[in-house]
Amino acid sequence: MQPKTGKYFLPAFFLGLCAFSGIHVAAQEDHPNIHIQVNMVQLNVAVTDGKGNYITGLRPEDFEVTEDGIPEKLAIFTEGHESVPLTTGQPHPGIKVAEQGTTSMQAGGLTPASSNEALGSLVAGANVFILFDTSNYMYRGFVFAQDAIADFVRSLETADKIAFYSYSRDLYRAAPLTADRSQILRAVRTTVAGDDAALYNTLLLTLKDAATYTGKKVVVVFSNGPDSLSVVPPEDVAELAQSVGVSVYMISTQQAKIEPVSSAVFERMTAATGGKAYFAKTWKDEKVAFAAIRDDLGHLYSLNYYPQPNPNRGWRTIKVRLLGDRLRKYQVRTRNGYRPQLNQMQNTSARSAQLSNTP
Predict the structure, then answer these.
(1) DSSP class of 81
(2) DSSP characters over 217-259
(3) Which residues pair with 70 in a beta bridge?
(4) Which pTM does this prediction carry?
(5) Distance separating alpha carbons of residues 237 and 212, to the nearest angstrom
């Protein structure tokens, strides 16, 4: 999703989120110095065939990453939760097609796939933030949703930590990021219904929390209706998610599709961050959607690089493509760019020193 600017654009949300080492841009003595701060960029990349099956067994040399057209050199490469050494001359282990666990996306919604193999714990080392819609759109089927979320939490056995937030008008941090699964489950079970929904406001706050952590970060949103209260547009939320490297997944029921604007926004936002949007036929299908997300996370490649020198202080476009004729038929899904974090500091020139010494 290419970022948009307008009256809702909130640059303050993108300032000072992390400590970075990066590029210094000198300014004239009469103006503040501007520092463009960029740390290692992490990309979560899914590779699938035309049927949506995951492609495994790819190597670092099978990928090409560019930022504003500048080739980037990978520093860390991970498939699933297995790191692959970045050395040359290694034999290719062979490309494999992995079926989508117990779920697949078919026309009209989520249905069981042909494979009955149980999904393993496939999000090793990830920090997972769950954001649960408790607005008045959720009054029907509230208990079903809690059951689905509880099962999802139990399945994340090797995830590093999990946070559980809920929202209606405001964000409620029911269980901050923790490795204690029992604390998360208690928070899920004690959630109560609220009033109107402010999804984009609360999702932005959740992303700001996630941005303070390193490593693989994922936000899973359960929403069943349109946003009626937010003052932050979804374009700005998507830009923040891309800039801090968080993949956003959304689950909703077919009820949300009655409001086409919301469903279209869900799909655009998740695609821009490298995640997915799922629309289940019934409340019970939410469990299938959670399983699909867990399956997707387990088949992600993690591509990490330190950006080459780049004078662009605005939006930087990322492109990932597969190299070689045998790989061109596969599809790549990841975030499409980010905005470097800006930090304006007062000039430390002689003029500033002189002013500070003035009685």
Answers:
(1) T
(2) EEEEEE--S--SS-SS-HHHHHHHHHHTTEEEEEEEEGGGGGS
(3) 67
(4) 0.71
(5) 16
Backbone angles phi, psi at 155, to 5 degrees: -75, -15
3-state DSSP helix/strand/coil % of the chain, to nearest 5: 30, 30, 40
Query: Which residue, 297, 290, 295, 288, is CA-closest to 111?
Result: 288
Fill in the DSSP letter of residue 359.
-
Q: What length does the chain have?
A: 359
CATH fold label, 106-297: Rossmann fold (3.40.50)
Q: Where are the alpha helices (DSSP H) in 117-171?
A: 142-155
Per the listing, tokens 């290694």 go with: 90
The residue behind tokens 């019970």 is 284
In this structure, are residues 246 and 211 in contact, taking their beta carbons and an 8 Å threshold?
A: yes
The closest of 45, 11, 127 to 304, measured between CA atoms, is 45
For the CA atoms of the chain, what is the radius of gyration? 21
Q: Which two tokens stand for residue 311?
A: 């004078």
The answer to whether 266 touches 289, Cβ cutoff 8 Å, is: no
pLDDT of residue 294: 81
User: CB of 75 within 8 A of CB of 304?
Assistant: yes
CA distance 333 to 321: 10
**Domain ranges across the chain:** 27-97+302-343, 106-297
- Do the bridges between strand 127-133 and strand 217-222 make them parallel or antiparallel, or are there none, so unpaired? parallel
pLDDT band at residue 286, thresholds of 50, 70 and 90?
confident
Query: What pLDDT digit, counting tens, does each position of 244-255 carry?
Result: 999 999 988 656
